[in-house]
Fimbria/pilus periplasmic chaperone
Amino acid sequence: MIKLLAAVFLTAYTTTALAGVSIGGTRFIYSEKARALTVLVMNSSAETWLINTHITSGGTWNGVRPSPQPAPFIIAPPLFALKGKKQGTLRILKTAQTLRQDRETLFTLSIAAIPAGNATGNSVQVAPRSLLKLFYRPMGLQGKPQDASKQLRWRQVARKVEVNNPTPYYVTLVNLNVNGLNVRDPGMVAPFSTRQLAECDPASRCILSWQSINDYGRMMPKTTVELSDK
């Protein structure tokens, strides 16, 4: 039987679900002063699933450059059996490797639920996998992360829509529209970086709207601006 990946969004608490297994969040913040980060994993099904985890550099996400450096984290346990109707915890611990202190660093937390039983007949068993954002956040960064999206600077350069992020925080863009047309997978704007995201005819008005996602996985209010090439 093929298990399909599904994402579940709850009003008060955002989780990610795969097969009968749900993960207590869609993004995780590892503060510089934290000794460890705990991730809750819950199994609502009657089956036993093997939970396999690892962390990689943040190049999985659109707009984020991949890093050749290994992620400086250890997950305990990296593989464990989660029985039906039970829950478990993952502990993420940072190693001694130094990361940048003037901005966030983004990593990808990968969690897969592997069927513990054996396939029978002509059936196929698939391990659904969720890719989740893991941010390392140094202490003392300027500004507040929830205000970072308000600081984005948009402008029109010839036919291109360009965005600059002057803050030390990553901003995730969703529901980006240019003159009413949806921009597919706008991705993220990295700290202190500039991206070109879409096209807009310079002979007409260029009206842009977008939303972002906060630390808790919730949508921020929509922002609308009219662009200029000045």
Residues 1-13 have pLDDT under 50 and may be disordered.
